[in-house]
Amino acid sequence: MKPASAVRAYHAPATESATRQAFLLLRTVFTIAPILFGLDKFTNILTDWTVYLAPQATALVPLSPRTFMDVVGVVEIIAGIAVAIRPRFGSLLVAAWLAGIIVNLLLLGGFYDVALRDFGLLVGALALNRLSAGNHQAQADGGTKGM
Questions:
Q1: What is the DSSP string of 35-59?
Q2: Distance, C-alpha 4 to centroid of its chain
Q3: 62-92 tens-digit pLDDT
Q4: Which residues are within 8 A (CB) of 81 and not within 5 positions of it... i.e. 6 or more apart?
Q5: Residues 16-58 pLDDT 10s
Q6: Residue 72 phi/psi, 5° resolution?
Q7: Are 41 and 73 in contact (CB under 8 A)?
Q8: Residue 143, Ramachandran bin (φ over 0: left; ψ between -120 and 50: alpha; else beta)
Q9: Is the separation of the CB atoms in 38 and 77 below 8 Å?
Q10: Handedness of CA 42, 47, 100, 25 (dihedral sign)
């Protein structure tokens, strides 16, 4: 019978590979999706984004709904680029942004399903942050590079 440390050592490469794959999947999604959604704020190909804007948002920030969505698009593009370059920071930016979207949707009412979906995305962004923090520590310890 092998000692527990030998069993752990045997499974370590598979665990590291799975962790790296999870990191890369989340990093890719949270890079591409915000950039695409941000670009769509300017074209409205997917939907008319102003429908999802609570009146309280434009009351708080005195911009027209169209201009407000343009600003949202820029922020989303920046968030996606931040995830690509600095996933540890970018993931928190995306999570905070999603929290704002959720509050907006709850204030608007009627889009509770979308708010719930965005909550799931927020949790995914936080998972990316944790994976990024672990990778950051591994790099500092001289471990896996490039995550």
A1: HHHHHHHHH-SS--GGGG--HHHHH
A2: 37
A3: 999 999 999 999 999 999 999 999 999 999 9
A4: 31, 35, 90
A5: 789 999 999 999 999 999 999 999 999 999 999 999 999 999 9
A6: -60, -45
A7: yes
A8: beta
A9: yes
A10: negative
